[in-house]
Design goal:
Blueprint (H helix, E strand, L loop, with lengths): L2 H18 L26 H4 L1 H11 L1 H9 L16
Length: 88
């Protein structure tokens, strides 16, 4: 991890704490260097855009949106890092 990546990850943590109205100490996360990276097959790339119906069904079925709403409340899906607004 280079210095820029570390700064961005720490900024992301601060933004999350701000959106949740908690201290960053209240969020349990470790920021670590990665050791390996495997790129997913082509059909997985941009899956939410290429297969919107399947992706939205998955999100609903697994309870992801319900859980995000419970944790983030009115801020669920509202930050600048939320690209897929179809399911929100």
């Amino acid at each position: 991890m280079n210095e820029t990546q570390l700064e961005l990850s720490q900024l992301s943590l601060l933004n999350a704490a701000d959106e949740l109205s908690v201290s960053k100490k209240d969020i349990s996360v470790q920021i670590e260097n990665f050791t390996s990276f495997w790129e997913a097959e082509e059909y997985h790339q941009d899956f939410s855009k290429k297969n919107t119906l399947k992706y939205n069904f998955y999100r609903y079925s697994c309870g992801r949106d319900e859980r995000l709403q419970k944790i983030w409340g009115k801020n669920a899906g509202q930050g600048s890092n939320w690209e897929n607004t179809e399911a929100n």
